[in-house]
Amino acid sequence: MEVHQHSAEPWRVTLVNTGDASMTGGRIKRIQSHIGGETFCLTYGDGVSDVNIRELIEFHRQQKTFATLTAVQLPGRFGVFTLEKERASISSFSEKPKGDGAWINGGFFVLEPQIFDYIDGDQTVWELEPMEHLARDQQLSAFRHPGFWRPMDTLRDKIVLEEMWAQNEAPWKIWDAQNKQ
Question: How many helices (H) and strands (E) does the chain have?
Answer without folding.
Answer: 5, 8
